[in-house]
Design brief:
Radius of gyration: 21 Å
Number of strands: 15
Order of helices and strands: HEEEEEHEEEEEHHEHEEHHHEEHH
Strand content: 25-35%
Structural class: alpha+beta
Oligomer: single chain
Length: about 375
């Protein structure tokens, strides 16, 4: 595994992971014959009214199952000659994701974490770490705003607003700030296995000297059937839905060392790159792409609504995401046996490892999509 996918040895260490990923990306740029090029993160988008917005330049397609994305990397390289995969950029993530606000909220509010087992422990027993709190624009449309902070593992219940203010400062819009102040509760869950990799895109005519860095991923996911991940008679399971998603997001760009920043040119190149990757996907997967216009978090909410879960139930449960880090609740008991506490961590594990709906391994997914 580590010889072909060396980043996997850093899967628990973000600092080492992102440092090595940057090195492989730089090597790939040099392999294109480009020297004296420097990497830049995706810039703020400056709106006509002068606001500096943190935009997530991202697109995706949703398919019934991950098997349909077999060979997608080589198919994209063949369809887009100026798209180059970054060698050794393959990495994998397990993402439990909780929706923390309802369908009527002005933004998406979610808590996501990574999921690891302890060393020498059964791989089906995992615990959330590296929690991130995020606010995003609704839907899957262009120019969605995204604001995200890492929560301390030792205090996941703390108020995220000071962290957001510290990170974004005056670039944190008031409507986002005020939405963060509203109370949060778990509305539902999604378990995601993500096979991630990077690519470089060039188009001299439209992007000029810029080389656009694209973070790509293939996700296999399960959506829980109840906010507390208990068994749902309506779904006849604790899992309500399973699908796959191919996602591509602009990570940043490379430019010559002496290149002078041009906001409009960079964003034109970003939007062109998103469209260029999307173009062949209709031909490749048009007959199987699901007509989904919701974000992942919204899919959680609409799925549970479709199963008859009411807001009153969610409010009464008043679940908090950090409760799912515990294998024994301090105040929640099983409905059929009040003498036994609820194991919410165990239910979260089932979202990934329930035998009849088990999500595939990260290495298997990478083998599939190569």
């Amino acid at each position: 595994m580590t010889s072909n996918r060396p980043l996997f040895k850093h899967i628990r260490n973000h600092t080492a992971l992102f440092s090595e990923l940057s090195r492989y990306r730089n090597i790939a740029v040099q392999g294109l014959g480009l020297s004296e090029y420097e990497f830049h993160k995706t810039p703020k988008f400056v709106a006509e009214d002068g606001r500096r917005l943190t935009i997530e330049p991202e697109r995706s397609i949703v398919l019934p199952n991950v098997e349909q994305l077999k060979g997608v990397k080589s198919k994209l390289e063949k369809a887009i000659p100026t798209l180059t995969m970054v060698e050794h950029s393959e990495i994998g993530y397990r993402y439990p994701t909780a929706a923390l606000a309802g369908l009527d909220a002005p933004f998406i509010k979610r808590m996501r974490s990574e999921y690891f087992h302890k060393v020498d422990e059964d791989r089906s027993i995992c615990r959330p770490v590296n929690l991130s709190y995020g606010i995003k624009s609704r839907g899957k449309a262009d120019n969605r705003q995204e604001y995200e902070v890492w929560m301390p593992d030792e205090a996941p219940e703390q108020n995220p607003l000071p962290l957001l203010i510290d990170l974004y400062g005056e670039d944190l819009p008031n409507d986002v700030r005020h939405f963060v102040e509203q109370p949060s509760k778990v509305h539902g869950w999604m378990g995601v296995k993500r096979a991630a990799f990077e690519a470089l895109y060039q188009n001299k005519e439209i992007c000029g000297d810029l080389v656009i860095c694209v973070a790509m991923s293939v996700d296999a996911y399960n959506i829980g059937a109840r906010p507390d991940l208990s068994f749902s008679p309506e779904a006849e399971s604790s899992i309500a839905a399973s699908n796959a998603e191919l996602e591509w997001e602009i990570e940043g760009y490379y430019a010559p060392r002496d290149w002078e920043f041009d906001h409009d040119m960079v964003w034109s190149a970003i939007n062109h790159t998103l469209a260029a990757i999307n173009a062949p996907l209709t031909d490749l997967y048009g007959s199987t792409i699901l007509p989904v216009v919701e974000s992942k978090t919204e899919r959680i909410l609409s799925t549970l609504k479709g199963l008859g879960v009411r807001q009153e139930e969610i409010d009464e449960m008043n679940l908090q995401p950090w409760e799912f880090m515990l294998n024994e609740s301090s105040h929640r008991v099983k409905s059929h046996d009040p003498s036994r506490p609820v194991n919410l961590l165990g239910r979260l594990n089932r979202l990934f490892y329930q035998e009849d709906r088990k999500l595939p391994s990260l290495n298997w997914m990478h083998d599939l999509i190569t």
